[in-house]
TrEMBL record:
Its main location: membrane. It is a multi-pass membrane protein. PANTHER family: HEXOSE TRANSPORTER, PLASTIDIC GLUCOSE TRANSPORTER 4. This is General substrate transporter. Pfam families: Sugar_tr. Gene3D superfamilies: MFS general substrate transporter like domains (1.20.1250.20). It is found in: Membrane. It comes from Aspergillus pseudoustus. Signal peptide: none annotated. The keyword Transmembrane applies.
Length: 136
């Protein structure tokens, strides 16, 4: 799904891949996480996962270019490396949240990790407010 969505984003004009793409990614991911956490049957859970995948495809395609554009040339490689390292930090946090809810006996065992996916998206939406606009 991510590769399919990325194909359309790669054909998007470069001027459209600025802060608005990060806001769009955050909104799509938040919507998917809420749908997934509020699901009452497997179809809605799967639909929520698909929506999250679409939001993550936007983030994985547009955000690295945005990070490279707003970074000073001397720090560009470091900023890109930190961006990609944050994906692994996020995976580690997600694993910790899932492990922490492992002993719960209610539906919140899987609902809380699903809802926790909102946190990075809200963080990205807030951080984008304080970074400069792309020079392009």
């Amino acid at each position: 799904m991510g590769t399919y969505n990325s194909y359309f984003l790669l054909n998007t004009p470069a001027t459209a891949l600025n802060t608005s793409s990060t806001y769009t990614s955050s909104a799509i991911t938040i919507t998917g996480a809420v749908l997934q956490a509020a699901s009452v049957h497997i179809a809605l859970l799967i639909f929520g996962r698909i929506v999250i995948g679409m939001g993550m495809a936007v983030a994985a395609t547009a955000t690295p270019m945005f990070v490279a554009e707003i970074s000073k040339p001397s720090y560009r490689a470091f900023a890109s490396a930190v961006y990609y390292a944050c994906w692994q930090v996020g995976a580690l946090l997600a694993t910790g949240v899932c492990y922490g809810t492992n002993d719960w006996t209610s539906n919140w065992t899987w609902r809380f990790p699903s809802l926790f996916q909102v946190v990075p998206s809200v963080f990205a939406g807030v951080v984008v407010c304080i970074v400069p606009e792309s020079p392009r």
